[in-house]
Amino acid sequence: MAFVSLEGMEFFANHGYYEEERKVGNKYSVDVKLELNVDFAGREDKLEGTVDYQLVYELISKVMSKEAALLEYLANQIVKLLKSKFPEVKKIWVKVAKYNPPIQGLCHRAVVELSS
């Protein structure tokens, strides 16, 4: 087994529980780690033996472009979509972060991590 990860993907999106958050928008980051067998790709140097991380990015970008209230929902949608497109992936970890969340105090990021 091996891990294929995309780290530090950044998006500007209109997510948030509060209406003002959705109006103004915010910066978000996503990290994803996929566990799968890459023996064929390692031996044959063929993309067919692994995941196409350009496609992984495009799928995550699609999820992030749709308005949502909760980070938990976004993380769950990313996992569901990646599972449906890459059945060879054994396990998925995803981390979604919202920069400067609207709370009463200093906080760089609010983060939700999900694995499935």
Overview of the structural elements:
The structure is a single chain. The protein has 4 helices and 4 strands. It is an alpha+beta fold. The protein has a single domain, classed as GTP Cyclohydrolase I, domain 2. A 4-stranded antiparallel β-sheet has the order 1-2-3-4. The two termini are 16 Å apart.
Number of strands: 4
CATH class: Alpha Beta
Query: Averaged pLDDT, please?
Result: 96
Trace the largest sheet across and list its strands: 1-2-3-4
CATH fold-level assignment: GTP Cyclohydrolase I, domain 2
CATH superfamily: GTP cyclohydrolase I, C-terminal domain/NADPH-dependent 7-cyano-7-deazaguanine reductase, N-terminal domain
- What's the story with the biggest beta sheet? 4 strands, antiparallel
Question: How many helical elements?
Answer: 4
